[in-house]
Specification:
Mean pLDDT: 82
Structural class: alpha+beta
Oligomer: single chain
Largest sheet: 8 strands, mixed, barrel
Low-confidence stretches: 263-267, 985-993
Number of strands: 32
Radius of gyration: 46 Å
Strand order of the largest sheet: 24-25-27-28-29-30-31-32
Length: 993
């Protein structure tokens, strides 16, 4: 009977447990085996997916490189054959140029499509299918290339149901869009490469919604592929590397469907043709972002599955053997136990008395445990309170509050815990920014006025809080002693817990709590305060990081002023307030005058210091209702709010201008700088931010044009002038291609021999729509828009060609002077263009003189000297134009390889009446001769001016006294006429006649 009880109680549960464990182990091994198969397949899939994407990227990069190389080679080819063919849509020329290239690309890189499109995306030529042309190309890649005005690349699903990787690149000749070049490569070849390299089967499925059944069927027939439209309701399969029947197609598409996979085991494999395949898919998106199909990857897992299943069978056999062995072992042990039970039962009775005694002891233990439970309950309550306080501090820190508000709230929460032994007094200190050895009290509670004042700032090492900060350790005092430095008459005796707030090795602050006098150190209090300090450490760092991010996002890093974003937000708020209270608001757009000269002369370090000083003056001047910001570079914005009189805004603008009249002291040097200010007023000049900004900018430009240092209030006529300038700029952009420019030439005459020794080339513009436009109007616009570079190249080439024609007509020693702008000199291609022009026209460089204005030469002296020496080394003559109107330094001038100085006509105009002008001209002549330069006087109109210039030693004269600027065909006549006059015995008399 007893044996049956033992068997029932022990052997049966043990047997069931072993059986259960075996089942669990077998199922786990089976599951992990299947899972490892899936993992292996997924790893293979990830490698294939990477290879697929990498091949697409490399093919796209290759085709882009081919097109860009084609465009580059065609652009650098002098005969421009391909550009002309594309511009004229000459299919034969395009085909002749591109067929060999296409054959190479098709053979070497499997590229199957090659197109030329017009700017309207109309197909000009299919190199791969010459018979088709003239259709509008509406593929995503072509549309994107047109919309982005840049290269478009991506997969395209064709009408026949095949995928092609396409690249479309716009081709520009200068600013003219010639058209588009497109290359395409079908992905079937890539599918077969992946299949062979990775020993997998690949199939491409396409969503039927993007196909036309008839077109797709015809396409599959044309490509010689098997096809089946009806295997699945939503998809069709193309480009398969595995021959499948209709039933297998249908089974595969069903297995791959999202609905089926969501309701089956993810580890399930698909049985096709007696083989077990694991299926993964790569979703295929076309370049338009549509999900048009998928690449299905069938990984043959038959051998792996068989191998894993054999392992599982072996494991089951081993598990069964081990379980049976364990069962038999336990059976033997229990049999031995049965024999011992009889003797042990006797001992049970004897032990009963001892157990009774033990129960009494247990009762005592239970009472002890009860007391422990009460203490645990109290501990849990304390933990709850601590958790409540910490959560409250943490949650409050995520509100839109300042760091000081967080610390005040934290101190209140710390002092609110009832079970702590601290008093309802305390404070929190933070380490000062920029002064890492000083604490500042930022939160306080229950302190006396004396302590608030005396302890508002505490140095590291001073008093208890300072010692905690210095040692980075908790300071505890149960009562007041000599280390408690700040005391006053009547102060209550107390103790302190001073806990440093630390991050790494950096002290961020100190928590200071008051304790009842004579209190012993409490580890619970210390642990709580340490936890609080650790939390505050993270909060302080986070809040300071947020403040730093806000500073970076909304403030200029150099000057500390609000940036454009913050200024615009403040301006919008002020406009809303002005609208609500019916007040005026003024917007000042400011630009420092000639700041670039300061930067170039003294360096960006001094320039940055100057900007900081300017910002400080503006910040000091601004009221609380105003705002000032740095827009960019040397531009500042300033709005004046809460004005009940619009005239007051002009007064403020005048005061802003006046604060720049005092010198700026930068590193012991004084600098003077004026400011140009444009003013727009709400609501007179606009009722929104955009309009006010635009109009203030327009007014500032007007002030700038007038020489700077001025204030201009916006007027409607300024917009009209801006529109006129915009029209002028638009017409100017087309003037070259419309052949609207021409050159006039003005003779330069030797003052002693009265022979023509040179001519100056002067550009003229007769616009089809604007008529004759003065150079004073269009040259500044050309320089601002950088159109001066191509225009200057045209002038240079035209002048050199004309000079060669004059030399061929017998004017052998004539030199031509051509003006060169700052932007031409800075353009990298200028020297190549100059060499090309001289080589193509055949003009000897010694007959070319380049005129550079004095301001250009002094813009960046070191760079100017380098560029002028490079020009001089080519044998070209160099002259400084408008000399005397700039800021030349003789020290700089002597370093420049100048051949000619040209005196500005402003000094010649009154030379016979104004002694000062005469002295200036005489000085310039002496300077020029001192530097071994010829001196040319411009604007000579009277014999009296001629005589004065001869007296002061001028070398060459130019002006209406001899000839006005004339067309090239009249230049030979002027040359002969002036030279005939030079034979007169009384040359001055001859000119008087």
């Amino acid at each position: 009977m007893e044996e049956r009880n033992i068997t029932k109680r022990i052997l049966v549960p043990l047997s069931l447990t072993l059986i259960g464990l075996c089942v669990i182990v077998v199922l786990s091994v089976t599951w992990f085996g299947e899972k490892s198969i899936t993992t292996t397949a997924h790893k293979d899939f990830e490698e294939i997916e990477k290879f697929w994407n990498l091949e697409l990227d490399e093919d796209g990069a290759l085709m882009t490189s081919v097109i860009e190389t084609l465009i580059y080679e065609a652009g650098t080819n002098k005969d421009k054959t391909l550009q002309k063919a594309l511009r004229s849509k000459d299919k034969a020329a395009l085909l002749a140029h591109s067929m060999d290239l296409f054959k190479t690309l098709r053979t070497k890189h499997k590229i199957t499509h090659f197109y030329y499109h017009s700017p309207e995306r109309v197909n000009i030529l299919r190199v791969h299918q010459v018979e088709r042309s003239g259709d509008k190309i509406n593929r995503f890649t072509a549309i994107q290339a047109e919309e982005k005005n840049d290269t478009a690349l991506g997969l395209e699903l064709g009408l026949l149901g095949t995928f092609t990787l396409r690249v479309v690149v716009p081709w520009y000749d200068g600013e003219e869009l010639l058209g588009y070049i497109e290359l395409g490569k079908e992905v079937d070849d890539l599918v077969h490469i992946i299949s062979e390299l990775n020993e997998v089967e690949l199939l491409i499925s396409i969503n039927k919604e993007f196909l036309d059944r008839e077109n797709w069927t015809d396409g599959m027939k044309m490509l010689g592929r098997k096809f089946d439209w009806d295997s699945h309701s939503d998809k069709v399969v193309i480009s398969n590397t595995l021959e499948l029947s209709q039933v297998e197609h249908k089974s595969l598409l069903l297995f791959a469907s999202e609905e089926y996979r969501n309701h089956t085991n993810d580890h399930e494999t698909l049985d096709l043709k007696g083989r077990l395949y694991h299926l993964d898919t790569i979703i295929l998106h076309d370049v338009g972002g549509r999900e048009v199909g998928s690449l299905m990857i069938l990984n043959d897992m038959s051998e792996v599955v068989l191998f894993r299943r054999n392992i599982i069978k072996a494991f089951i056999a081993i598990s069964f053997t081990v379980s049976l062995s364990i069962f038999l072992l336990f059976y033997r042990i229990l049999a031995r136990t049965d024999r011992d039970l009889l003797s042990k039962r006797r001992k049970i009775v004897e032990d009963a008395k001892a157990k009774e005694d033990m129960q009494k002891e247990h009762i005592l233990e239970l009472e002890t445990e009860k007391r422990d439970l009460e203490e645990a309950k109290e501990s849990i309550n304390r933990s709850y309170q601590v958790e409540r306080v910490l959560n409250s501090i943490r949650d409050f820190s995520f509100r839109d509050v300042t760091l000081n508000e967080i610390l005040v709230h934290s101190l209140d929460e710390i002092l609110s815990i009832p079970f702590l032994s601290i008093e309802d007094k305390g404070s929190i200190f933070l380490t000062e920014d920029g002064n890492e050895d000083m604490l500042t009290m930022v939160a306080k509670h229950g302190l006396s006025e004396y302590i608030e004042n005396e302890c508002s700032r505490v140095a590291f090492g001073r008093c208890l809080c300072g010692r905690a900060a210095e040692t980075k350790k908790i300071v505890f005092k149960g009562t007041m002693d000599e280390e408690h430095e700040n005391t006053y008459e009547g102060i209550a005796v107390h103790g302190h817990f001073c806990v440093p707030i630390i991050s790494g090795d950096v002290v961020l602050g100190v928590i200071n709590t008051y304790l009842p006098n004579g209190l012993e150190r409490s580890l619970e209090d210390e642990r709580f305060l340490r936890m609080t300090a650790n939390m505050l450490s993270g909060i302080i760092l986070r809040k300071k990081s947020e403040d730093t991010i806000e500073q970076l996002a909304y403030y200029d890093q150099l000057t500390g002023l609000p940036n454009r974003a913050l200024f615009m937000d403040r301006l919008k708020q002020s406009l809303a307030r002005a609208s609500r209270y019916d007040t005026y608001l003024g917007l000042l757009f400011m630009d420092l005058d000639h700041f670039k000269n300061l930067n170039d002369t003294f360096g960006h370090v001094i320039g940055d210091k100057f900007l900081k000083s300017a910002a400080e003056r503006l910040k000091t001047f601004a009221r609380t209702s105003d705002s000032v910001a740095r827009l960019s570079g040397d531009e500042f914005l300033f709005f004046v709010g809460d004005q009940y009189d619009a005239n007051g805004i002009a007064v403020v603008a005048g005061k802003v201008s006046s604060i720049f009249k005092e010198p700026f002291n930068i590193d012991g040097n004084e600098f003077f700088m004026t400011v140009s200010i444009g003013v727009s007023i709400y609501p007179n000049d606009g009722k929104d931010v955009t309009t006010l900004m635009k109009n203030a900018d327009t007014a500032m430009y007007k002030a700038k044009v007038e020489g700077g240092g001025a204030i201009h209030l916006y007027t409607a006529s300024m917009n009209e002038r801006a529109l006129e300038r915009l029209e002028l700029e638009n017409r100017l952009r087309r003037a070259l291609e419309r052949d609207e420019f021409y050159l006039d030439y003005q003779a330069q005459v030797d003052i002693e021999t009265f022979k023509v020794v040179g001519v100056e080339a002067l550009i003229r513009w007769r616009s089809e729509h604007l008529g004759f436009v003065s150079p004073d109007e269009f040259i500044p616009v050309a320089e601002t828009t950088r159109l001066i570079v191509p225009i200057g190249e045209w002038v240079l080439r035209e002048a050199c060609e004309e000079m060669v024609r004059l030399h061929n007509q017998g004017l052998k020693d004539l030199c031509v002077a051509v003006n060169v702008s700052l932007y031409q000199l800075k353009d990298r291609s200028f020297f190549d263009t100059l060499s090309s022009v001289l080589e193509e026209t055949g003009l000897d460089p010694k007959y070319l003189e380049l005129e550079i204005t004095e301001s250009v030469a002094m813009d960046n002296v070191e760079e100017s000297v380098r560029l002028l020496n490079e020009l001089k080394n080519k044998g070209i003559r160099l002259s400084i134009d408008d000399f005397g109107t700039g800021y030349s330094s003789l020290e700089h001038l002597k370093r420049m390889p100048i051949d000619v100085l040209k005196i500005d006509m402003s000094f010649i105009r009154n030379i016979t009446e104004d002694d000062d002008d005469k002295k200036i001209v005489e000085t310039i002549v002496k300077i020029g001769h001192g530097f071994n330069c010829k001196v040319i006087a411009e604007g000579v109109e009277t014999p009296e001016q001629l005589e004065v210039l001869r007296d002061v030693g001028c070398d060459i004269i130019q002006g209406y006294l001899f000839s006005k600027p004339v067309a090239p065909k009249e230049l030979k006549g002027v040359y002969d006429s002036v030279n005939q006059q030079s034979m007169s015995l009384d040359k001055s008399k001859a000119f008087e006649q």
